[in-house]
Design a protein that fits this description.
The protein has about 375 residues and is of the alpha+beta class. It is built from seven helices and 18 strands. Helix content is about 25%, strand content about 35%. The strands form three sheets. A six-stranded mixed beta sheet has the order 1-2-3-6-4-5. α2 links the parallel β4 and β5.
Length: about 375
């Protein structure tokens, strides 16, 4: 059902792929990670090589790109090099340097047998069977106030959902908040998010949304908060579950941050598992292994494993991993740990300060597992 492959192309681009298939009459899913470590050429050549390889792979495998995220080391100079015609899908371009020194990387989520429809500015919909999936690429407001920016962004996003008979409460499954100078601006983003969530009915009495809040930037200094999101229309009661691992992790609201540790979505033919940004933390909300990179990495992975297990999933079901490091120079040690413990999962490690200074590392991932659940329509 789930297969992983790694290919290095003649142009120097390496592609790590996870694909999930349930056979004929079912949608196939693809998580693709394009990297150019060891590439002999400047950044313009690297981005062009990734783009060319992307086009070849989409054509040869007959994949529709649904969501793309570029990770760039110099957002101001490199973003203009990204081809504007690179797939009709929600796109994110973030200043988060790949720590292997490659300067650029690309994560792509794609599907078979679907078409992506533009619904708005960097907002795309994919419809198949009984479900509509809505992906939001980079959305932002130019203001020096991260709280006001977040309120405005989420208000606009909720209006987009309402136009499609959806809501933040019922339909949004995943968000990302990239915050410029996270040590200064993260608190404002959190306050703004909490304000909107409270009015939208997202509270401790209902639920929150799986999320990552991490350092990341665009070229303009006034763009403090960048937003990405994923929503699903057509879900029935009981299809969505919110993941807990009380032996290892506390509720995020115990320290005033409104997001779920993870979310699972049951379809008739598979289960999606979305793991939020996760760090080295214990059940009391305290940093574990302060100052110890290896200790934090292993505890972070243990926390993620517990969340996966709460959805009856495991590392064997994980489709891709994104790792965030506060310190660029920690790459080799972290890369070695992941290579030893999870050698086959597509991964990218980027420099992106975590939201609490004592955390040296954070990760997120997505998983998919074959299931049979006749009460729900297939994905």
């Amino acid at each position: 059902m789930l297969t992983r492959n790694k290919t290095t192309y003649p142009n120097g681009i390496t592609l790590a792929t996870t694909s999930f298939s349930r056979g004929a009459d079912h949608v196939d899913e693809y998580h693709l990670m394009f990297t150019c470590y060891g590439f002999d050429g400047g950044i313009e050549c690297r981005i062009q090589a990734i783009s060319d390889t992307f086009r070849i792979v989409m054509r040869d495998l007959d994949i529709t790109p649904v969501f793309c995220r570029w990770f760039l080391s110099d957002i101001a100079n490199q973003q203009p090099l990204i081809p504007e015609d690179l797939g009709s899908c929600a796109t994110s371009i973030i200043g988060q340097p790949p720590t292997d020194g490659s300067k650029a990387g690309l994560w792509v989520y794609g599907l078979s047998d679907v078409k992506s429809h533009k619904e708005g500015d960097n907002f795309y919909g994919v419809r198949h069977g009984e479900y509509s999936h809505f992906w939001m690429g980079d959305y932002l407001k130019s203001t020096d106030d991260p709280e006001k920016a977040t309120v405005s962004i989420l208000t606009d996003y909720e209006n987009l959902l309402k136009e499609r008979d959806c809501s933040l409460l019922e339909n949004c499954m995943r968000t990302w908040f990239f915050v410029r100078d996270v040590d200064v601006n993260y608190k404002g983003m959190v306050v703004g998010r909490n304000r909107v969530f409270d009015t939208a009915g997202l509270t401790t009495a209902s639920h929150f949304i799986a999320s990552t809040g991490i350092g990341g930037k665009k070229a303009e200094a006034r763009e403090k908060v960048i937003f990405n999101a994923y929503a699903v229309k057509g879900l029935k009661e009981g299809q969505v579950n919110y993941l807990k691992a009380p032996s290892h992790l506390n509720s995020t609201m115990e320290y005033g941050v409104a997001f779920e540790r993870g979310t699972s979505i049951d379809y008739g033919d598979r289960r999606h598992v979305i793991i939020s940004g996760t760090a080295s933390i214990n059940k009391y909300g305290e940093i574990v292994h302060r100052g110890d990179l290896r200790g934090q990495t292993l505890r972070m992975m243990e926390n993620v494993e517990k969340l996966l297990q709460s959805a009856d999933a495991g590392w064997e079901d994980v489709c891709h991993i994104i790792v965030y490091l506060r310190d660029f120079s920690d790459h080799d040690e972290v890369s070695k740990i992941f290579s030893e413990k999870l050698p086959d999962i597509p991964i990218i490690i980027v420099e992106a300060p975590v939201c609490r200074p004592g955390w040296l590392i954070e990760m997120e991932c997505m998983a998919v597992k074959a299931t049979e659940c006749g009460e729900y329509a297939p994905f």
